[in-house]
Each structure stands twice: as C-alpha cells, then as structure tokens.
Design brief:
It holds the Pfam family TrmK. The protein has 229 residues and is α/β, with parallel strands linked by helices. It is built from 10 helices and 7 strands. Helices cover 45% and strands 23% of the residues.
C-alpha cells in the first residue's frame, strides 16, 4: 500500500471525506490517506497526527516525497491534541484501531472533536463502543459501511453532531448496517453467532453467578443476531 494505491479499507474511509474538507487524520500511518486525498484535490488541507516518533518521521518523509508540505502538515501529539482551533478542521478520521481505543481518544480530546462537523471512524474490532460513545456525547450516526479485505471484516461509522437513541441491537450491529443487511454484514454476524453458540455450549454447567451472567449475555446476543438475520 502507498498513497497512490490505498487499501480498499482506506479508500472507503476516504470516500466519506467531503470535498474541500479540512482534515485531521489521527494515527495517520505514513500519511497515506491525507496524501492521497490532497494529491487528487479532494481536500483543502490536512493534519497527519502521530503520537510515536518513528511513525511521525515516516509520515514527514512521505509528505515531503510527495511534494505536499503546503497542504499536509505532520504533527506529533497524543490523539486529538494535534488539532488547533485556527486549523478550522471540518473532518476527523481515525482508522485501524480498536473501537474502545478510538472511543478513548475521542473522550480525551472531546473539545477538539467538537471543532469538527464530521467524524469518520474505522474500528478494527468492537464498533459498538464507538456507537455507545456517540450516543452519550451527542453525535449521530449518519452512515455506516462494512467491507471485507484480506479475510478481515471492517466497519466504518460516519458521525455528525446530533442526538440519537439506540437499542441494544443497534449498538451492537449498527442501525444503518442492520437496514442495509449486506452480504458482508450477514457473513460477519453469522460467524460471530456461531462462535457465541460454541462458547455457550462449552461453559460449565455449574450455577456460579458469573457463569450464569455470561450465559445470559451470550443468549441475548445470539437472539439479537437471529432476529436481524
């Protein structure tokens, strides 16, 4: 992968960045996404944020080699702290991390997240934690996507400011993905359900409170998936 040939996952993330946006890409991975969008004149300006020195330097080299230093600025800092109010950032992307970590980054940088009008988030696992965060922090899910690449399934969540109330099933499965019910969505949740059934069958028969609680949690999840599929 490079800034000319993005992975399908990053291309799909980039497709939700609005034309002429001012972008902050957090955990930018060589700044591939902002470089791609800047080269194709799809954004006005981007920050590529990195918290570790090595990836920060790699991103800097990438931006210089592409001749994009006038439109892509690489900054080192923890999460959303790389954003300043004068940057006038309209869109934030965070891709390729676990859902709980993305939610934690958004929590820690809540004030800077509020400077943007759109968040595009691609968790590798546990997307429910982002939906939970969005519901509590007055962000609304305006679109969702799901794709498979290299035998892994990824979800993408697009948030804009607004209130929403989700059911347990919507938090787990995604309110828009549930309606679209794509082949990839069905594949993911059929696989998850089969794994939960397997775990349930192998839990001990004893009636300790923690075991009973785990069994009930699995039964509820299995039922939610069955009702949607």
């Amino acid at each position: 992968m490079n800034s000319e040939q993005l992975s399908e996952r990053l291309k799909r993330v980039g497709s939700y960045v609005e034309k002429n946006a001012r972008l902050a890409d957090i955990g930018s991975d060589h700044a591939y996404l902002p470089c791609y969008l800047a080269k194709h004149r799809l954004i006005d300006f981007a920050i590529a944020g990195e918290v570790v020195k090595g990836p920060f330097q790699s991103a800097e080299r990438q931006v210089r080699s592409e001749g994009l230093t006038d439109r892509v600025e690489v900054r080192m800092g923890d999460g959303l702290e790389v954003i300043r109010s004068e940057d006038e950032i309209s869109t934030i992307t965070i891709a390729g991390m676990g859902g709980p970590l993305i939610a934690k980054i958004l929590d820690r940088g809540e004030k800077n997240a509020a400077l943007a009008s759109r968040l595009i988030l691609q968790p590798n696992i546990h997307a429910w934690s982002i939906r939970e965060w969005a519901e509590k922090n007055e962000w609304n899910i305006v679109d969702e996507d799901i794709l498979e690449e290299n035998q892994k399934i990824y979800e993408i969540l697009v948030l804009e400011k607004g209130n929403m109330t989700l059911t347990e099933a919507q938090r787990l499965l995604g309110p828009i993905l549930m309606k679209k019910k794509s082949e990839t969505f069905q594949k993911k949740w059929l696989r998850e359900k089969q794994e939960w059934v397997r775990i349930l069958e192998h839990l001990p028969a004893e009636e300790r409170p923690e075991i009973l609680e785990k069994k009930e949690e699995l039964r509820i999840k299995i039922q939610m998936v069955e009702e949607v599929l």
